[in-house]
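We store sequence, tokenised fold; for instance:
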Amino acid sequence: MKVQFLLLASVLSCSAVWAADEAKTDPVTEDGVVKIVWQNPKDFRDIKSSGEIQSRYEQRLFDTLTTNINKEAAKVLKPNQKLEMMVTDVDLAGDMRPTFGATADDLRVVKDLYPPRMSFSYQVLENDKVIIAGDEKLADMGFMSGIQSVNEKPFMYETKMLSDWLKKTVAPKL
């Protein structure tokens, strides 16, 4: 009798865990005229944290990129327009390297060899009607060239890549 009860309890607990995993939704960030759905972030190529709790790091990344792209989109879009994006992959500038015991955390090494990359679909809406839509696979191969700012802002290479895309791809179509 005890064995049957334990077996039933384990089956129920496993099904509860599976249901909880299935119930998880993709993170969504919104700021001003921009809404971004981050589809399956666990499958992204590289959004690894070097010293922060991974879930907090991801949320900070998503919030920062949404806020920064909103600043540019507010300049480009007309008053009743919105930008909606569904991000399917992110590869941050640089590469994570283990420190082999020198510190408790890994280290992100930023070199020309590891450019920022991002894949997403987007649509620009005007009064809830789609006026522009498309799919993008961005990579900024020259992210290390040009003038570098002295005070490095978080995710500055990814922000610049998205801002350039907005100015070169979306703005001319409006």
Observations:
- The first helix runs from residue 2 to 23.
